[in-house]
Amino acid sequence: MSGGRLRAHNLAISLDGFGTGADQRLESPFGHAGTRLMEWFFPTATFQGLTGTRERQAVDPATEPDDAYARRAWDGIGAEIMGANKFGPPGWQDDPEWRGWWGDEPPFHTPVIVMTHRELPSLEVGETTFHFRSGSPEEVLAEARDLAGGLDVRLGGGPSSTRSFLAAGLVDLLHVAQVPILLGRGERLWDGLEGLEQGYRIESETTPSGVTHIVFTRD
Amino acid sequence: MSGGRLRAHNLAISLDGFGTGADQRLESPFGHAGTRLMEWFFPTATFQGLTGTRERQAVDPATEPDDAYARRAWDGIGAEIMGANKFGPPGWQDDPEWRGWWGDEPPFHTPVIVMTHRELPSLEVGETTFHFRSGSPEEVLAEARDLAGGLDVRLGGGPSSTRSFLAAGLVDLLHVAQVPILLGRGERLWDGLEGLEQGYRIESETTPSGVTHIVFTRD
């Protein structure tokens, strides 16, 4: 294999399979889902940015089982691929001031490829460089692997871009956090993926937060 | 409360939410899903009909965590409600010889109400009497409660009839067994149930078989 693995982590979905709600807007990136898909993630040491062992001890120990999943997303990653809707609200391509949701220091610290139909100039924000590409999943992954310098590539979501890489058979690890709510509408993760389980090992675990972590892996 | 609780147990769904596959036929009651949604259930002591403690010991102990869920479906039940597709393949209403999938001794041993648009004469098979009704979920439940004589009523599936009782707010306990396969097509359980989690406690547990048991309860 010429490059590293393609890994998706911390992709939260509702019990009815929606990875984001309907009506995504600037003030509500997850649409009518609000923050409900990510409530399990916010109190974790990883989200709080507490990386040292001593700092971790300040966190509610009940969040540790979730954090054990959350923190793997940052291990050995050299580049990220994300969908257009993760980078900004509908229409961000027409706003020359838009630099992502994350302020002056985005949490990626690696090259990031944003999949969008418009080719735009690359953008450096803090330690992160965003590249904008309209290629196929295969083409984008090839470039991301070059950028990752031998490390793995993170597939950062959202649900529709993740689904296109799953459908193309390109994903080596998929970690889904299934949250026990029913959103009823939005963007589904699993559509059109009949038989996806073939060729993967699947492990599931429910944590005290009520979230079921489901991990697909292949060698 | 004039009658007992309405409880649904052992309703198996795929990770993408299908409670049965597409193309249900006489020779394949679950359609293209085959038996894959029920593989966790078949080796349990409950399915094997082994009810005594001594008999249970002959069963693979790895199936015990699943059986702990499976066997609750038979506790304190005085009547069952089922959808038309659980009673027979499409068109069974036109076959005067059709007496259900279960042979001479169906496993219910209580009155069963089959929801169908045709009013047909009641049918006695072994210790089970089937009644055929076209009423609303509320009407059917009222009759089932009378038949149950103070015990609980089991909502026996399939997914679309279960969904109609959930949408009407009539279900007191829902046990879903989520199987880690993707069916891609068929009958979805969760459609149109946005916000269902409100008013329920939800507990989830993954067993060694890989199934995640999800239980909604309310008082």
From TrEMBL, chains A, B:
Q: Which Gene3D superfamilies match?
A: Dihydrofolate Reductase, subunit A
In which domain of life is the source organism classified?
Bacteria
Query: Which SUPFAM superfamilies does the entry mention?
Result: Dihydrofolate reductase-like
* Residue span(s) of domain Bacterial bifunctional deaminase-reductase C-terminal: 11-194
Q: List the InterPro entries.
A: DHFR-like_dom_sf, RibDG_C
Instruction: Report what the protein is called.
Output: Dihydrofolate reductase family protein
Q: Can you name the source organism?
A: Leucobacter iarius
